[in-house]
Design brief:
Chain lengths: ~300, ~375, ~425
């Protein structure tokens, strides 16, 4: 039983990070019907932004929750700017072209960011500073062997806080209403006098900052950061967004948590049913395929009637 | 000369050219001269890329279904054909050699394993296609990506074909050839490249091709016009996977080594870039794109020291720039047809050929440029 | 139609006349000018930190050789090519290096899969190739021009299994390996075979991929199997984090590993959680011997970071090559090959290197304990008896699924 609880905690932890990244995917897709392939790389950029901020400000020497907060906010701002730049110079000019063009553009941007980082700073992994003392502090024991570490608790809390803030922005503010309007129908929103370009930029900014938060938080749990860390995580977060219903914000959160837990359980218990842990990455894709075949609108999504 | 004789003559000429080219690229060379091995290798790899690009173009360019899992089908074709060669073909080859001599025997065995690889790849295409082709656009793209990754992970786990070490030949304790024989050379690769182009061109110019294009243009309208879109989509997917399988089989027997690291996501992306660069919906475009994208990274190796590490950055930047400036690709959806050389001269009996704005061509100032301009508009 | 064909014919003839070369039977080795050595590795892909580290070692060694006057008066020039970690590209760049750049010897590759793809080209062209760190036994079996200066998987896996069974008196072991890495899989399979043949029991086998961020699922499963030791034959990037997560889950068993752990980043990632673990390695970066201290200091001065095991192996591969060229007195392929094969007791930074008849390096392995951010010498384990039997064809386990690997022919355990 304690193993089960442990795996559950682990899974939710991993899932919370997927959820943060999935939110960015789902928001951008909701508005532009664009799969932002570069989003996983923004997650990486966020982690590195945090790393360099900590380096420049010498915060590694003074580990504390406050330092983490500073680094978190700093990296979120940097990522927001990066996201807006990508949107303005890469996606906006091709918005009017076919879907394939925007997809290729997204892939091109993703490759550009990855290769730029590798060429500039090398692909060697770096160690993100440990602000929560997770390397030295023992975990809190729950019962039996089940334990939860300080880092995991903080990750949960910060993720939940960010998601609540997002929820508030989207549903309780004017900007949020504008965002939802644009996601329903871009042209009508324009006719209503909404500055759609600004709203789209804002969406990218928010989505990117959430991904960056995911990057910094995950670095607390696993301090290994390298320029290619965003690829697989980004893809799995996309699967999470689709699972929950793309364009649906609570769906992204649900999807993220589910994918994280499913992965962890397959890895942990799979050997009992003959699935080697080597198939871990295949789990996410298998879930994706099943979802798209059985319920393409996702768990919480609604089917959109196609108008002729 | 009757058409079928012309066709046979054409075939013979092509085969002769391929044999000569191959001799030129081989170890002994032609009259003591040869193409540097490095260039020969690039040429062969380009041929394989052409097969991949043209086949992907069939499903993505002409039928409008985004598939970014092409490397997965290539892997299926490569591994299944090489598996056959290494483990099950030795006795057959020996028997045939006794019958018809070594070269013919090898060619026959090779044809068999290529067909086998193509069939397995087509089967994979069927398995992937039937459930996936219900989806549209971006979803289909991600699902095909997912399938390709799953295929790769499955192959990675099969020790009999090398697993994480790679496939060079038999893996003990199973019996078989110690090394993958080099069956593929430029004759085969060039021949199959031409075959792929011809087959795809024939499909595109037929009723099936028109159905495919109609699906690309407006699927609902096509369905309303009575075209069984699912049938055509799956058909196109299966054919394109089969050719990817052929490309894989050729690749495996050329490199004599297979490893799943050569069939990752980035490979599928490379093939997509080839057809986007060349122009989706244009076979010539796919060929051009394949040539450029295969040769470009090698050219970029010539960059001086400090820029060398930036060559992939340059490559990705190029992709972005092309998307910004000419997203329809080099050829758009036009072909390098010979029709635009002919058009201005064609005269229908009883008609005066009419150019733009309804003015008879004969009356317009007949500068060469203008004729080509009109020809282009008609094409 | 005719016009197009004629145009094509013209273009083809023009191109081929520019691009053809005379087919000779000569090899690259002849000549007395600059010694051109080709280095190929992953400089931009997923495993580029390994390729770059090795490249650093190679280049530093070449510079040292040149500063000391070159070899027999000739300077060494390293020509580098990036294969992006793909075996297909590895074969292509090696063709380019041999054919266009006319290199006289090759250094590479780090990953066995890339070495296997490229080695046949070197063998065919009679260009000697020394791999700094490919550990799969199959690499040197490609031909007699292919060498390596590192351990092979069977050896290292056995070393740790022996240490676990004899020194740590472990009866139950769990394994957590990187399933995408041929190196990690090789070590896992040979450790398993050796450990079970000594009476031990493998209680859990889990895997991960390089780049995975979370190992709690696998570690929790391992925890419930209650092993005495956990063998983690992976690379430092993941191992550091694994060690950390192990402690966080309250697992007390020590972790065992191989030379893939050896990198300065290991300490940054794992910190104090690494105390009490053990690895098998060729040497220790904290080794007090003056040669190693000098190597570490020079490397740090030049690249601003401490060397890892790969850099040390890259360095040694170039030095061994240089020594062989000196002894051969020329860079002729066959002579150079013979000279490399005769390398005996060469004092490398990764140990005293002797090349055996299978063209593998014979050097004792040291077992090091990790304590307070340092590798502390624990014990030395020499190769089993004499060099491994030359007829062993094992190219990795032939297992299907989770079946027990078949025993290779003629290898005494």
């Amino acid at each position: 039983m304690d193993t089960f609880v442990q795996q559950l905690i682990n899974g939710l932890n991993v899932g919370a990070i997927y959820a943060l990244i999935a939110l960015g995917y789902t928001m951008v897709y909701g508005i532009l019907r664009l799969i932002n392939f570069a989003h996983g790389d923004v997650y990486m950029v966020g982690a590195f932004a945090g790393y360099y901020i900590a380096l420049k400000l010498g915060l590694a020497a003074a580990p504390s929750f406050m330092s983490l907060l500073v680094v978190l906010v700093g990296s979120m701002i940097v990522a927001a700017i990066v996201g807006m730049i990508i949107e303005r110079f890469a996606y906006r000019p091709v918005r009017k072209y076919s879907r394939m063009t925007t997809l290729i553009m997204a892939i091109g941007v993703s490759l550009l960011i990855e290769n730029l980082f590798v060429a500039r700073i090398g692909a060697a992994p770096r160690a993100f500073p440990d602000f929560l003392g997770s390397q030295s502090q023992p975990p809190y024991h729950l019962f039996g062997n089940a334990a939860i570490s300080k880092a995991q608790i903080i990750i949960f809390l910060v993720s939940i806080a960010l998601m609540l803030v997002l929820q508030w922005i989207v549903y309780k503010t004017k900007v949020g209403t504008a965002m939802r309007a644009v996601s329903f129908n871009l042209n009508s929103a324009k006719l209503m006098g909404i500055n759609t370009d600004a709203i789209i930029s804002l969406t990218f900014a928010i989505g990117s900052s959430l991904a960056a938060a995911g990057g910094v938080l995950t670095a607390q749990y696993n301090p290994n950061i390298d320029p290619l860390m965003g690829i697989l995580t980004g893809l799995k977060a996309f699967v999470a967004a689709v699972l929950g219903g793309i364009g649906n914000i609570p769906g992204a959160v649900l999807g993220g948590l589910l994918i994280g837990t499913a992965e962890t359980f397959v890895v942990g218990y799979g050997s009992h049913v003959g699935i080697a842990s080597t198939y871990r990455d295949a789990v996410a894709f298998a879930i994706l395929i099943l979802v798209l075949l059985l319920r393409p609108s996702g768990l919480l999504g609604s089917t959109v009637q196609e108008k002729v | 000369m009757p058409t079928f004789l012309k066709r046979i003559l054409g075939l013979v000429i092509i085969v002769v050219l391929l044999v000569v080219a191959n001799a030129f690229m081989s170890r002994e060379g032609l009259f003591g001269f040869g193409l540097p091995y490095y260039y020969a290798e690039i040429l062969n790899l380009t041929g394989i890329s052409i097969i991949l690009a043209v086949s992907l173009n069939l499903i993505t360019g002409f039928t409008g279904q985004f598939s970014i899992g092409h490397a997965g089908f290539m892997a299926v074709g490569a591994y299944s054909s090489v598996f056959m060669t290494v483990y099950y073909s030795e006795s057959l080859e020996r028997w045939l050699t006794a019958l018809v001599g070594a070269t013919v025997a090898q060619s026959l065995v090779f044809i068999c394993v290529i067909i086998f690889g193509a069939l397995i790849a087509a089967l994979a295409g069927l398995i992937v296609g039937i459930p996936s082709l219900r989806l549209r656009g971006d979803y289909l793209a991600i699902v095909t990506l997912g399938f390709a990754e799953i295929i790769r992970i499955i192959i990675l786990n099969i020790d009999r074909v090398g697993g994480a070490t790679g496939f060079r030949g038999r893996v003990p304790p199973w019996d078989g050839r110690p090394l993958i024989p080099q069956y593929a050379n430029f004759i085969w690769i060039g021949g199959f490249a031409i075959l792929t182009i011809v087959v795809v061109r024939n499909i595109v110019n037929s009723d099936t091709g028109r159905a495919l294009v109609s699906i690309r243009e407006d699927e609902l309208a096509a369905e309303a016009m009575g075209i069984n879109t699912t049938h055509y989509k799956v058909l196109s997917f299966v054919i394109s996977s089969a050719f990817a399988g052929i490309a894989g089989a050729l690749f495996g027997h050329f490199r004599q080594f297979l490893h799943t690291n050569d069939f990752q996501f980035i490979r599928s992306i490379e093939i997509i870039i080839m057809i986007v660069l060349g122009g989706m919906g244009s076979i010539t475009g796919a060929v051009l794109g394949a040539i450029v994208i295969t040769i470009l990274p090698e050219l970029l190796r010539k960059l001086p020291g400090n820029l060398y590490s930036y060559r992939l950055v340059i490559y990705s930047a190029l992709v972005i720039v092309i998307m910004l400036t000419r997203p329809q690709g080099v050829m758009g959806s036009k072909e390098f047809g010979l029709s635009w050389l002919k058009r201005p001269q064609r005269r229908r009996v009883g008609d005066t050929a009419v150019g733009e704005k309804g003015v008879p061509i004969a009356q317009q100032p007949a500068t060469a440029a203008k004729e080509i301009e009109q020809g282009k508009k008609h094409a | 139609m005719k016009r197009t064909l004629f145009a094509l014919f013209l273009i083809t003839t023009l191109l081929t006349s520019f691009a053809c070369e005379r087919r000779t039977n000569g090899t690259n080795g002849a000549g007395t000018g600059t010694i051109t050595v080709g280095y190929y590795g992953d400089l931009s892909g997923r495993t580029s930190s390994f390729g770059q580290s090795t490249k650093n070692g190679v280049e530093m060694a070449a510079d040292e050789i040149n500063k000391a006057g070159g070899i027999n008066g000739r300077t060494v020039q390293i020509i580098t090519e990036d294969d992006q970690g793909e075996p297909n590209k590895a074969a292509t760049v090696v063709t380019k290096l041999i054919n266009q750049d006319k290199v006289m010897a090759l250094l590479g590759e780090v990953a066995s899969s890339n070495s296997l793809a490229a080695a046949p080209k070197a063998q065919e062209a009679k260009v000697p190739m020394i791999s700094p760190s490919s550990t799969n036994p199959a690499v040197t079996q490609v031909g007699d021009y292919i060498f390596r200066v590192c351990f092979i998987d069977p050896f290292q896996g056995e070393v740790m299994a022996k240490f676990a069974a004899n020194n740590l008196k472990a009866k139950k072991a769990a394994i957590l390996y990187d399933f995408n890495s041929d190196y990690s899989r090789g070590l896992y399979q040979f450790f398993k075979r050796s450990f079970t043949s000594q009476g031990g029991q493998i209680v859990s086998e889990q895997s991960y991929t390089q780049g995975d961020r979370d190992f709690s699922g696998q570690l929790t499963a391992i925890r419930s199997a209650a092993p005495d030791v956990i063998y983690v034959p992976g690379y430092y990037g993941e191992v550091g984090v694994i060690s950390n997560q192990t402690k966080q889950l309250g697992i007390k068993a020590p972790l065992l590993g191989g030379d893939g752990w050896d990198a300065p980043q290991l300490w940054q990632l794992g910190g104090a959680s690494l105390n009490g673990n053990y690895i098998s390695n060729h040497y220790s970066v904290d080794d007090p011997s003056p040669a190693i201290k000098k190597f570490v200091a020079d490397y740090k001065a030049r690249y601003n970071i401490l060397p890892d095991a790969l850099a040390a192996l890259g360095y040694d591969s170039m030095k061994v090559l240089g020594d062989a060229i000196k002894r051969a007195g020329s860079t002729d392929g066959a002579k150079l090959r013979d000279a490399i094969a005769q390398t005996k007791n060469f004092p490398g930074v990764t140990g005293t290197i002797t090349i055996d008849q299978d063209r593998n390096a014979v050097k004792p392995a040291v077992v090091l304990k990790l304590q307070d951010m340092k590798f502390v010498y624990e014990t030395t384990i020499s190769p089993e008896g004499s060099a491994p039997a030359s007829s062993s064809p094992a190219t990795g386990s032939a297992s299907t699924g989770t079946a027990v690997p078949a025993a290779p022919a003629g290898k005494a355990n």
